[in-house]
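Sequence only, no structure available. Ideas?
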Amino acid sequence: MTLSLAFKMAIRPFGDSALLVDIDAGSTDASSDIVMALNAQLSQQRTGGIIQTTPSYNSLLICFEPKRVQLSILQTEIHAIADTINVKDIPKGNHWSLPACFCAPYALDCAALETELSKDWQSIVDCFCAAEYRVHAVGFLPGFTYLGNLSEKLYCNRLRDPRVSVPASSIAIAGTQAGIYPFDSPGGWRIIGRLPFTVFHAQSDQPALFQANDRIRFESVTPEVFEAMEQRPIASLIKKANSQ
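Reply:
I predicted one. Tokens follow.
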């Protein structure tokens, strides 16, 4: 079996101190694999002048200091790394099992989704919890978690009029994606449940609990169990197995 990976790559300036690397490997998951591998290799090589990298679905944003590294040199190094990427370079990320309540008052769009999807609520929850989700990106809001692998049975429209405030740790779906809101904020995704703990801590060395390429599963709990969990430390509520 060959270890090489086939993909197309394009590098373009993103402002005066960043590069955006676009990857096309034929599918979202395959492209994400390349993005994560490239990001990991850049981190391991500790390329001088790079300030920050932000991986996403099929792109990698690389912020750098122009005074420390020339754009052309950085582009050459990225191409050199990309030419040697193989399946062994793809990081696995962390696997999480998360308790969540999908009942009122946490499932704000229960009735609307039953109507739109033509399914009863328990079927929707069962379908949602049956999948393992991949964290494709963390952004738009600090710590907002974009999740891929939502079942086609749950594809739905965004709200026509976004909410002024979505509660922190709300679990949502919209279009072909799922997501987790990191803190109280406006939002137009359909809210189906909530986690009993905070997923973003601004004062922490790593503020966002979840990182790109993590895998997440959800376990439905009752409102009574949810309320009890809110009083407990986060470490006692979630199961994590680092498979990297």
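The two ends are 22 Å apart (CA to CA).
Hope that gets you unstuck.
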